[in-house]
Design brief:
Layout (H helix, E strand, L loop, with lengths): L6 E3 L2 E4 L3 H12 L4 E4 L16 E5 H9 L11 E3 L1 E6 L11 E4 L12 E5 H14 L3 E4 L4 E6 L2 E6 L4 E4 L1 E4 L6 H5 L4 E17 L6 E7 L2 E7 L9 E9 H9 L2 H12 L6 E17 L3 E2 L2 E3 L5 E2 L7 H16 L9 H29 L4 H15 L2 H12 L9
Parallel strand pairs: 1-12, 2-3, 2-13, 3-9, 6-15, 13-20
Antiparallel strand pairs: 4-8, 5-8, 6-7, 10-11, 11-12, 14-17, 14-18, 15-16, 16-17, 18-21, 19-20
Helix pairs in contact: 1-3, 1-7, 7-8
Length: 411
């Protein structure tokens, strides 16, 4: 072929094929917009990988995006609905305070009420995204490939390590918290370190969870148990998200399975019988991060490249999906240049307030709930018991949990 470089012309080139980048790519291509997605890692093989303990809580708004993009239909098994949420306050090894808050999806008075969300295993979502990406005529996928991006007011050029050149009207940074594209664009970030580690994994338990999630507020940070869909290998299983002071977390992560399981049981209580850790243990430092702006010349940031929040409300990925949904809605109107300053300004106006609100809310929750001062604990318990008796306020909380928030922010 001599020194011929193949040029691929698309409207949008997305760098990063994680859940947010890949969902945006499928949404745009399903809507008929020529799109490319590039990732430095190979896409995992299509046969189902082993269970690794990671799962996502998918809110209603995120499910809508995944359904519209044709991804949800490819999930290898039905996701587990979250039908009830119990919030309780306590100390490890003690029974939680009887003053607690119960949310039931049946009483959420939400538009088209249904579950609060669905638990989707990371591997199941990956399989669905890969299957959908392969079907789409308007999508070019390059993985593994490294990308060198040049942006000008006229357009963007992405040189790939495969030797190809992608010409695009808009580049989307979906490469996660340490986004090279964000750094290259000179976009600053504000951050906060909670001095905690988040431990993520899964447990098998004796009793069925019946779709109930538990959020326990403990002195060093919240502990959540989230109901997973039954699979042949694990008929009764839940995901856990456990925030803990760094030193304690590091000790817990080093424990053998039986003792690690006991530490989980002390925090969770015995309502599901004996628990056994399954899959791998994952951990990451808990920090909050927010980009000073979400756009630059021919560039938009989505997902963790734009914001990272404390996992207390389990909303990090849903916030990223809301970015993808808002950007896709603007791009699929199809009436203007996909990377125009006007469109990018509309995207930032649609998304930044919601992310700031979420950051502020999770930060306030963490401050209020990750604290063992007795007066605060009492106020918290009375507050939870009071909210439990106020249906309208409770419905508002429940809707927030389902990810309806931010809907009003769309132009």
């Amino acid at each position: 072929m001599g020194g011929m470089t193949q040029t691929i012309d698309v409207a949008v080139c997305i760098i990063g094929a994680g859940p947010v980048g890949a969902s945006l790519a499928t949404a745009l291509a399903a809507g008929g917009l020529p799109t490319a997605v590039v990732d430095s890692a190979p896409l995992p093989p299509m046969e189902l990988p082993e269970f690794d303990g990671r799962a996502y809580a998918i809110a209603r708004a995120s499910r809508d995006l995944l359904e519209a993009a044709g991804v949800w239909q490819h999930l290898p098994w039905a996701p587990g609905p979250i039908l009830r949420i119990r919030c309780a306050d306590g100390l490890p090894g003690e029974a939680p305070s009887p003053l607690m808050l119960h949310f039931d999806a049946a009483e959420a008075e939400a538009p088209s009420a249904g579950p609060f969300g669905w638990m989707v295993e990371a591997r199941a979502l990956r399989v669905a995204l890969n299957a959908r990406m392969r079907e789409l005529a308007h999508l070019v996928v390059r993985a593994p490939a490294r990308a060198e991006v040049t942006r000008t007011p006229e357009g963007a050029t992405v040189r790939l390590s495969t030797g190809e050149v992608v010409r695009a009207r808009l580049v989307v940074a979906a490469e996660g918290r340490r986004s090279p594209l964000r750094q290259q664009a000179g976009i600053g970030t504000a951050g906060y370190d909670y001095g905690q580690l988040g431990i993520v994994g899964a447990i098998a338990h004796e009793a069925p969870h019946e779709g109930m999630a538990l959020e326990q507020f403990l002195p060093n940070g919240p502990f959540a148990q989230l109901p997973l869909a039954p699979t042949p290998e694990h008929p009764n299983a839940s995901a856990i998200v456990w925030s803990e002071k760094r030193a304690i977390a590091e000790r817990a992560l080093a424990l053998p399975d039986a003792e690690y399981g006991r530490e989980i049981q002390r925090r969770m209580g015995n309502h599901l019988g004996k628990v056994t850790p399954i899959g791998r243990r994952w951990s990451y430092p808990l920090t909050a991060m927010h980009a000073m702006r979400y756009t630059d010349t021919r560039l938009a940031l989505v997902g963790d490249a734009a914001h990272g929040i404390h996992p207390i409300a389990g909303q990090g990925l849903n916030l990223g999906f809301r970015d993808a949904a808002a950007l896709a809605a603007l791009l699929l109107r199809g009436e203007e240049d996909p990377g125009s300053p006007e469109l990018l300004a509309r995207y930032q106006a649609a998304r930044r307030p919601d992310a700031l609100l979420m950051l502020g809310a999770t930060h306030a929750l963490e401050r209020l709930f990750g604290n063992s001062l007795p007066p605060l604990r009492l106020a918290r318990r009375l507050g939870m018991a009071a909210v439990d008796r106020m249906p309208r306020l409770k419905a508002a909380f429940a809707r927030r949990a389902m990810g309806f928030a931010g809907q009003g922010l769309r132009s």
